[in-house]
Specification:
The complex is a heterodimer of chains A (785) and B (150). Chain A is α+β, with helices and mostly antiparallel strands. Chain A has three domains: 2-37 and 478-618, Aldehyde Oxidoreductase, domain 4; 42-145 and 209-287, Aldehyde Oxidoreductase, domain 3 (Alpha-Beta Complex), CATH 3.90.1170.50; 375-471 and 634-780, 2-Layer Sandwich (Aldehyde Oxidoreductase, domain 4), CATH 3.30.365. Chain A has 21 helices and 31 strands. In chain A, the strands form eight sheets. Chain A has a seven-stranded mixed beta sheet, sandwiched between helices. In chain A, strand 26 and strand 27 form a beta hairpin. The mean pLDDT of chain A is 97. A five-stranded mixed beta sheet of chain B has the order 2-1-5-3-4, with helices on both faces. In chain B, helix 2 crosses helix 3 (102-114) and helix 2 (81-92) crosses helix 5 (139-149). Chain B is globular and about 45 Å long. Classes of the chains: A alpha+beta (785), B alpha+beta (150). The interface between A and B is large, with 57 and 51 residues.
Chain lengths: 785, 150
């Protein structure tokens, strides 16, 4: 059935002449329920349906950064009235192993603890108060061990090992070897070398982690919980319980934000609730307090990046030499993937003929590194883009002009020597945003302003970023969805993609179905976030629409082929001359000769045309050589440019970001309103990261500011003006209708653009984040470091 | 201890602990799930309610403190013209993403508009400073208010 071949379906809708729903104004279907407080989040299900039946789970955390567990005494806690279980590693019926990339992490600490805040035991009781009371009575005999907090120290020591069996504190290494770096630097007329440092950031999703597990009479467990990949959460819970995956079902309801954090912590939260439910036979509910959330869940990593780059007088980059060190913390989690991404993006979206990049993910006795919007990319693009500004300055070139001389274009080869054959709109995006922001005149205007003005200084900076879409290398990635048309013509889609605010299942997926089948959005219902749908992969890596939507597109495309054949027969028209629009199917040249969608569906049911389909699509990939870091890194790249304007108060050191101009080259824009929302939200989160959000650790590696009083995120007053994004729709042939991905994008170059703007304003070299008043005053030479 | 107050227009009497916070009473005892739990220390605003018409963090109020007073949540504003306008404007402007903070914003904006405290976007910005949103970057929320003022 060539007509139902996914490749031909993708090709067909990629080159459609016109879209009537996609790219247009669209009101997402979940917005009103959320606004009116009717949408249910995990804890709401507990309150509505299981309160009084479910046990409360309270976690017992390690107070030590590194210690042997000699014994765990649970008797006293078990003696508290209403306590039904105290669960430790000994009680895990399956495998106490939840590491994603490396098998280094227990669900509940076993033999030793590796960071302050590590979960050692779970206490389950009939009431929250009793669970809290009993959790304080769980006595753990610890034998404290020497610990290591600084990644540079950890790298060079083997006498203190976070993971003894690893034999080193280096959890994972990456490398790129391209061309001849020495020759490249010999050809360079200017060389810039710096060490950059970035810091830990917390996600601060306003809804903390929660899960509600419900056992049934047939030995199955259903968990309603906050996660970003229901199938992964199900698989991990099943492994912990030692049962087949089919016995566990995970439903992810509306999420109060995710940002990557619930991709890491979600399966663990869900496993904890599942474990208690499995052991007690009772429904069980876990919710993290804000303090627990900040202490326990993985963070955006702190980094040390040493970056040397050179360029010729004619403006061409000749070589880069980069060392990336990630403070991975106690467990690898997704650190290898994060480091890998940082490494393969270490050139920025530029042509670099010679490159040496070495990456190290380093264990320390601190909360561990995890997924967070941008996934290792914001810190490396910060370093890249600071380098680019300084090279431009040394060459006497305008920063935008210098970037354009080196920017990736169709036919370019990337850092990993991958040829980019299409979908490379970054140069155009850069040109357009420079024009729109009056870049050249603003640079001059601010230079003049800064000469005349003493206290306040103005700056404008650019940040350009690329972000590989899909999983790295040849790691399999696919999309899927099940779509069925009911007898009344309504359409139901099942997807594993979750709704965490981004609107993939409640906006873009609905739009795709509505576009292809020509049915009004009210007739489309997308059932999301359930492990009963086919595995759609995680809702991370900006893939909910661009990749998650492929399955929806292919499934809808298959159904349309079948119905077009039927309608063609009924109307006596060639199927490919038919239009599906607004609930009608008609020949393109004669809209009046239509058959109603509902009648066509009825005919299909009467004539034996199957109206259910799966939209499986496996992304084609290429080969990658890990020893040289050369080859096929990603199927395509999404690009973004942001220009930021700042005003710095040189007396107080306070930086105010006043205006941001974004330009996206991220393929088809399916829902402009939601894309704007992602850009503006990422600007806010990136602004917090750049200016003031920072986790502070005490001398034992405990987090000092584990609450929202001391860990401050942006409010409405901190926001700059964000201009309407410029779109360069450089469609990607295997993306949903050509979409690549947007969710993470604006956060990636924002720190760089702000740092460049501040460097411009003050004439200093920003090499660290966040840009706190103290750091700004140090840069001015007012405060000593 | 027994506490009586008016919730969304109807009188309620609940048996609470002396140290019980209004957030828990509303969510766990009265099933008012639009009031969310976010930080439990008066920083994020997802637990906002109207107390005698003023926005208040229900995590910072002991239930005993609302004896004899009037508590309103978005459930209580169903059918209220202004509240529905605010909700519609937020929806139309794309100001709702995850939606966890949205009911709190609606209450704060509602009280501000009702009392004439919001004359322009700058007023709105200052007024919503006590409500955190991690998804939208606030700009579309402010745009929704701006549309209402127009």
């Amino acid at each position: 059935m060539a007509l139902e071949d996914p490749f031909s379906i993708l090709e067909k809708y990629l080159s459609a002449e016109e879209y009537v729903v996609v790219g247009r104004e669209f009101t997402r279907v979940d917005a009103l329920d959320k606004a009116l407080g009717r949408a249910l989040f995990t804890e709401d299900y507990f309150i509505r349906y299981l309160q009084g039946n479910a046990l409360f789970i309270k976690q017992v955390l390690s107070p030590h950064p590194h210690a042997l567990i000699k014994a765990i005494h649970v008797d006293e806690a078990m003696g508290v009235a209403g306590v039904k279980a105290v669960v430790t590693h000994r009680d895990i019926p399956g495998v106490n192993q939840v590491g994603y990339a490396l098998p280094d992490q227990p669900l509940l600490a076993e033999r030793k603890v590796r960071y302050v805040g590590e979960v050692v035991a779970l206490v389950a009781a009939e009431s929250w108060e009793k669970a809290v009371e009993a959790s304080q009575l769980v006595k753990v005999d610890y034998e404290p061990l020497p610990y290591v907090l600084d990644p540079l120290e950890a790298m060079s020591r083997t006498d203190i090992l976070v993971h003894d069996e690893a034999g080193s504190n280096i959890a994972f290494k990456t490398r790129v070897r391209k061309g001849d770096v020495e020759k490249g630097f010999a050809e360079a007329d200017v060389v810039v070398e710096n060490e950059y440092r970035t810091h830990h950031q917390d996600h601060v999703y306003l809804e903390t982690e929660a899960a509600l597990a419900i056992p049934d009479s047939e030995g199955r467990i259903t968990i309603i919980g906050a996660a970003q990949h229901p199938h992964l959460a199900r698989d991990i819970a099943a492994r912990v319980l030692g049962v087949p995956a089919g016995r566990v079902k995970v439903v992810v309801p509306y999420l109060g934000g995710g940002f990557g954090g619930k991709d890491d912590e979600g399966p663990l939260t869900i496993s904890k609730a599942a474990l208690v439910a499995y052991l007690t036979g009772r429904p069980a509910f876990i919710v993290y307090s804000r303090e627990e959330s900040i202490r326990i869940h993985p963070k955006r990593e702190a980094t040390i990046i040493r970056y040397k780059s050179g360029a010729r007088r004619d403006g061409k980059l000749t070589a880069i030499d980069v060392t990336i060190i990630h403070d991975t913390g106690a467990y690898a989690n997704r650190a290898p993937f994060i480091l890998w991404r940082a490494t393969m993006h270490a050139s920025g979206p530029y042509e670099v003929p010679n490159a040496r990049v070495d990456g190290y993910a380093v264990y320390t006795n601190k909360v561990y590194q995890g997924s967070f919007r941008g996934f290792g990319n914001p810190s490396i693009q910060f370093a890249v883009e600071r380098q680019m500004d300084q090279l431009a300055e040394k060459l006497g070139l305008d920063p935008v002009e210098f970037r354009l001389m080196n920017i990736l274009r169709p036919g370019s080869r990337t850092l990993t020597n991958q040829e980019l054959d299409h979908s490379v709109g970054v140069g155009e995006a850069l040109k357009k945003v420079a024009e729109r922001s009056n870049w050249i005149s603003k640079r001059r205007e601010f230079d003049a302003f800064n000469k005349a003005e003493k206290r306040f200084k103005k700056g404008i900076g650019v940040g350009v970023a690329w972000h590989g879409i899909s999983t790295s290398r040849g790691v399999p990635d696919w999309s899927n969805a099940v779509l069925k048309v009911e007898k009344d013509g309504s359409v139901v889609v099942f997807t594993g993609i979750v709704e965490m605010g981004q609107g993939s299942p409640t906006s873009s997926h609905v739009q795709i179905v509505s576009e292809i089948l020509g049915v009004p959005p009210e007739m489309v219902r997308v059932v999301f976030g359930t492990s009963d749908a086919p595995d759609t992969g995680a809702t991370h890596a900006s893939r909910g629409t661009g990749i998650g939507g492929i399955g929806v597109e292919v499934a809808a495309g298959k159904i349309r082929e079948r119905l077009a054949r039927l309608a063609g027969d009924l109307l006596g028209v060639e199927p490919d001359k038919l239009v599906f629009r607004e609930g009608r199917v008609y020949p393109r040249d004669n809209p009046e000769r239509y058959i109603r969608w509902v009648d066509l569906v009825r005919e299909a049911y009467a004539r034996g045309v199957e109206l259910s389909a799966t939209g499986y699509f496996f992304l084609p990939k290429g080969k990658f050589d890990d020893t040289t870091g050369q080859g096929f890194a990603y199927p395509a790249f999404s690009y973004i440019v942001v220009v930021s304007e700042v005003e710095v108060d040189t007396e107080t050191g306070v930086v105010r970001v006043t205006r941001v101009w974004p330009a996206l080259a991220s393929g088809r824009i399916i829902s402009p309103l939601q894309v704007e929302g992602q850009v503006e939200g990422a600007v806010a989160q990136g602004l917090g990261y750049t200016l003031f959000e920072k986790l502070v650790f005490d001398e034992r590696g405990g987090i000092v500011n584990a609450d929202l009083t001391d860990y401050v995120i942006p409010t409405a007053l901190d926001m700059p003006v964000v201009e309407k994004p410029i779109y360069v729709e450089d469609v990607y042939k295997y993306g949903a209708l050509g979409a690549k991905g947007v969710g993470e994008m604006a956060l990636i170059p924002l720190p760089a653009s702000i740092a460049n703007a501040v460097s411009h304003a003050l004439g200093v070299n920003v090499t660290r984040l966040p840009l706190t008043p103290e750091y700004i005053l140090q840069l001015e030479g007012v405060l000593r470091r | 201890m027994k506490v009586s107050f008016k919730l969304n227009g109807r009188p309620v009497e609940v048996d609470v602990e002396p140290n019980e916070i209004l957030l828990d009473t509303l969510r766990l005892k009265l099933g008012v799930t639009s009031v969310k739990r976010g930080c439990e220390r008066g920083e994020c605003g997802v637990c906002t309610v109207l107390l005698d018409g003023e926005p208040a963090y229900s995590c910072l109020l002991l239930t005993a403190q609302v004896e004899g007073r009037e508590v309103v949540t978005v459930e209580g504003l169903r059918g209220d013209e202004l509240a529905e306008k605010i909700a519609r404007s937020l929806v139309e402007q794309g100001a709702v993403q995850c939606g966890f903070c949205t009911p709190g914003f609606i209450l704060t904006i509602y009280a501000g508009l009702k009392k004439g405290l919001i004359k322009n976007v700058e007023d709105a910005k200052k007024l919503i400073e006590g409500n955190l949103c991690r998804c939208t970057g606030y700009l579309k929320i402010l745009k929704a208010v701006e549309k209402l003022l127009a």
